[in-house]
Write a structure and sequence with these properties.
Order of helices and strands: EHEEEEHEHEHHEHEEHEEHEHHHHHH
Largest sheet: 6 strands, mixed
Radius of gyration: 27 Å
CATH class of the largest domain: Alpha Beta
CATH topology of the largest domain: Alpha-Beta Plaits
Structural class: alpha/beta
Number of helices: 14
Number of strands: 13
Length: 389
C-alpha cells in the first residue's frame, strides 16, 4: 500500500520530532510525493496522495488554514505537515476538528527542524517504497496469471507477506472503469486507497484487468468485513456520484492459490454489477457461484434460451409474464397461491398460465431434472439484465 503515514511517523517521530495531532484514522494513507506550499494555487496541480508541507507563511490565520486543509482533502492529499513555531504557534481547534471528522492526517514538526533534510529523507523512502510496490504488483499478477510458475513470484513476495498464510481477493469496480481517462482513474484510485482504512502491509492494492484489486493477507474474516463496510460508508458519503461494486473472493491458503480467490472475486463483482448491488460475496452466491464462474457465454446462452424459447417468444409477442410465472412457480415449491401473491394476480389466472406453460414446454414439470433445467435457465436469464430476450 506504499509508504504510509504510519511508516513516516515511525521514522520521523524521533528523527524530526513529528507528531500526529489530528486525523489519526488516516494513518494508512499512502504517500505519493512531498510538496512544500505556502499558498493554495498549487493545489490545482495535485493529483492525489501528495503529502503537503507548510511553514504557515501563507496560512497564518484560522480561515486560511481551514481553507488549506479543505482544499487538500478535496484533492485526496495524503496529509499535511505544519512547521510550527514561527508563523503558526498553535493549531486552531476548528482545524483539528475538521481533520478528525474527515480522517485527514495533520502532523507538526518544530521550527528548529531543518525541513530540507527531512524532505530529502522522506522523499527517498517514498520513492523506494513505490518501486517495491510495483514489484509486488507484478508478482501478484504473475501469481494470478501463471500460478504454476511459483519460482517467479513466491520469492519476491516472501519478504512482505506470509506466502503460506491466508489470502483473499477483493475487487472494486464501477461502470466503464476501463474507458475512463487515465488521470481521472488514478485520482479515483487514490481516493479508494484513502477510504480503505486499516490496511497497510498486510494488504496490497493495484489496478488490473479493468478493476481495482485489493489482496489481503493474514487477516481475519471479521477484519476484512469491517474494512469493506467502512469503505462503502465512506464512499457513499464522500463520493456519492461514483457508485462502486465490490466482489469478494473466497479465503484461500497459500499464495499459489491466489488465482482461485481472484476468479471468484471476478464472478462476485460481475453479479454485483449486473444487479447494481454494492457488495456480493462469492461464498454466499448459491447456484450463481457456478453460473458466474462459467467463462463459456455461449453455453450459458444455450442453457437459458433453448429451454425457455417458447415462453420468451410468447412474452415478447404478447407482453406477458410467462417466464416470470414459471420462475416463481418453481422457486415457491409449485405453490399457486405463493405465485399469485408475489405477482398480485388472481390464483385462477396463475392456474391458467401454468396450464399453457406446460403445454408450450411439452412437460408436466414433475421430474426433478425438468425442474432443475428450468430453474437454471431462469437464473441465467436474470444474469442478462440488459437482454432478457
Amino acid at each position: 500500500m506504499g509508504f504510509t503515514i504510519e511508516d513516516m511517523l515511525v521514522v520521523a517521530k524521533e528523527a524530526y520530532q513529528m507528531e500526529l495531532i489530528a486525523g489519526e484514522h488516516g494513518w494508512s494513507n499512502s504517500i505519493n510525493w512531498l510538496i512544500v506550499l505556502e499558498d493554495t494555487t498549487i493545489l490545482n496541480h495535485f493529483s492525489g496522495r501528495e503529502l503537503a508541507i507548510t511553514t504557515g507563511l501563507g496560512f497564518n490565520t484560522e480561515e486560511m488554514l481551514i481553507s488549506l486543509v479543505e482544499g487538500l482533502n478535496a484533492k485526496a492529499a495524503a496529509g499535511l505537515i505544519i512547521n510550527t513555531g514561527q508563523y503558526i504557534t498553535e493549531i486552531p481547534a476548528s482545524v483539528i476538528d475538521y481533520c478528525n471528522r474527515n480522517d485527514f492526517p495533520l502532523m507538526t514538526v518544530p521550527w528548529d527542524i531543518y525541513l530540507v533534510d527531512m524532505i530529502k529523507d522522506l522523499s527517498i523512502r517514498v520513492f523506494l517504497q513505490g518501486t517495491t510496490d510495483e514489484e509486488i504488483s507484478s508478482a501478484m499478477i504473475r501469481a494470478i496469471e501463471d500460478p504454476d510458475a511459483r519460482d517467479l513470484y513466491v520469492q519476491k513476495l516472501l519478504p512482505y507477506f506470509d506466502t503460506d498464510g491466508v489470502f483473499q481477493v477483493i475487487l472494486i469496480t464501477s461502470d466503464d472503469l476501463d474507458k475512463m481517462d487515465t488521470v481521472i482513474r488514478r485520482r479515483i484510485s487514490f481516493r479508494i486507497q484513502q477510504y480503505l482504512m486499516n490496511i497497510t502491509h498486510n494488504g496490497h492494492f493495484f489496478y488490473y484487468n479493468s478493476d481495482f484489486v485489493l489482496i489481503t493477507n493474514a487477516m481475519e474474516p471479521g477484519e476484512n468485513k469491517e474494512i469493506i463496510a467502512g469503505f462503502l460508508d465512506r464512499m457513499k458519503f464522500r463520493m456519492p456520484e461514483f457508485p462502486v461494486y465490490i466482489g469478494v473472493g473466497s479465503r484461500i491458503r497459500d499464495v499459489t492459490k491466489l488465482h482461485i480467490s481472484y476468479q471468484r472475486a471476478r464472478a462476485a463483482a460481475a453479479m454485483a454489477m449486473d444487479r447494481k448491488e454494492s457488495l456480493v460475496v462469492f461464498d454466499q452466491m448459491g447456484l450463481y457461484r457456478i453460473l458466474y464462474s462459467l467463462q463459456d457465454r455461449k453455453l450459458l446462452d444455450e442453457l437459458c434460451k433453448k429451454p425457455l424459447r417458447p415462453l420468451l417468444e410468447y412474452d415478447q409477442k404478447h407482453d406477458s409474464e410467462y417466464v416470470r410465472t414459471l420462475e416463481l412457480y418453481l422457486i415457491n415449491n409449485e405453490s399457486i397461491q405463493a405465485v399469485a401473491e408475489a405477482m398480485f394476480t388472481h390464483r385462477n389466472t396463475i392456474l391458467y398460465r401454468m396450464k399453457n406453460i406446460r403445454k408450450m414446454l411439452g412437460t408436466d414439470l414433475k421430474s426433478t431434472e425438468d425442474k432443475m433445467t428450468y430453474i437454471i435457465a431462469c437464473r441465467i436469464l436474470s444474469m442478462y439484465r440488459k437482454d432478457k430476450t
